[in-house]
UniProtKB/TrEMBL annotation:
One GO molecular-function entry: homogentisate 1,2-dioxygenase activity
Catalyzed chemical reaction(s): homogentisate + O2 = 4-maleylacetoacetate + H(+)
Family to which this protein belongs: Belongs to the homogentisate dioxygenase family.
Ranges for domain Homogentisate 1,2-dioxygenase C-terminal: 279-431
Protein name according to UniProt: Homogentisate 1,2-dioxygenase
Key word Metal-binding present: yes
Cofactor(s) required for function per UniProt: Fe cation
Protein species of origin: Banduia mediterranea
Top-level class of the enzyme under EC nomenclature: oxidoreductase
Amino acid sequence: MISPELQYLTGFGNQHATEALPGALPCGQNSPQRCPYGLYAEQFSGTAFTAPRRHNRRSWLYRIRPSVVQGRFRLLPPTPWLSAPLTGDPVDPNPMRWHPLPIPETPCDFIDGLFTFAANGRPDAQTGCAVHLYALNADMQSRYLYDADAELLIVPQSGELLLRTELGQLHVPPGHCAVLPRGIKFQVRRAQAAGGAHGYVCENFGAAFELPELGPIGANGLANPRDFETPVACYDDISGNFELVARVDGRLWSAPLNHSPLDVVAWHGNHVPYRYDLSRFNTINTVSFDHPDPSIFTVLTAPSDTPGTANVDFVIFPPRWVVAEHSFRPPWFHRNVMSEFMGLVQGRYDAKTSGFIPGGSSLHNCMSAHGPDADAFESACQMPLAPQHLDDSLAFMFESRYPFRCSEQARNAPFRQMNYSDVWQGLRSQFDPGRP
Ligand SMILES: O=C(O)Cc1cc(O)ccc1O
Ligand SMILES: [Fe+2]
């Protein structure tokens, strides 16, 4: 039986309503003179009050204590969880690639386990994003986090996560992603008590992720709205010595708390966390020829102020049939105005024969040339073009309109592959003016 806390409300962008105790949600109004069960009403906004209806996001929380019952915030020392602007770090035009982040040897929770690879834009201007990897071997037990700078997109690579949030709990194994809205208080724990967990995080400083338009694809396809899952209300009623960590303008602050802030008994609204099983993605691709642009694989897009030009897109390369006729089937050689940070959840990626391994990452910045490695090119030119199933593969890309600055700690990391560009240097001229 699924535990009552791990049930889900479905639908992307819906106005949800949920209560952990019967009648806890006020009926017909948000702010009654006295709330049921002696709860406090608190509005939690994700957009300006006056944002157009189709973008407007807010939830109403009915909680045991209002969020203002907290101690004074003090600035914490810097950690490897960095932020934009990565001033002083150049936008490096070299293709870059890394092995997985090592699992820490000392106890390390989600906050301590975040290691920043790249960032663009800036949180105080609400533009751009930052890309981090986490490697953790401990749960957040007595501390809680909120990120005022960003919405967090989490892509686990190994180890199942339990995201305990104010609005309820999300179980997020590898193969799923989860999105935590800007400002929500939460804890990251491992769903299985022991062992480590690895994954990727996109801190989206801009407007919230939404589903891409479908255009001529029609009313269905790609990530279907009904497959997005939001938690049901579930609350702690515990007192003790706790800590609330706040992420604000790229720095961490800590305030003491005498109770768990996950004390929301009922809520309604649309500024919510959610998870999505990436195997539900309805992959659409060519059934004739050529390799379409990877925008057909967009799961979520965070728009910028220029239509069609994302602050950041979340794109996946899932298991799929590859059937293009008389075509070079893997990704082509290219130079892209958008900047591409890639990760691999499992299996292998069709543009790279080796070196890009699960838990690894790559960065190809604005206009940096990249594409299939020499071995992948050679085999794709020779392979018989029977229908082929790419079955063991789940790569993804955070693709942004803003070039990424790569952190010094990532550029100098021992797990960086300094010789990455060698994968292309075997591509010799095969030009023969006599052979059309
Ligand atoms: O560089 C990459 O591997 C990502 C990518 C994949 C693809 O199919 C087309 C373009 C692209 O940038
Ligand atoms: Fe690319």
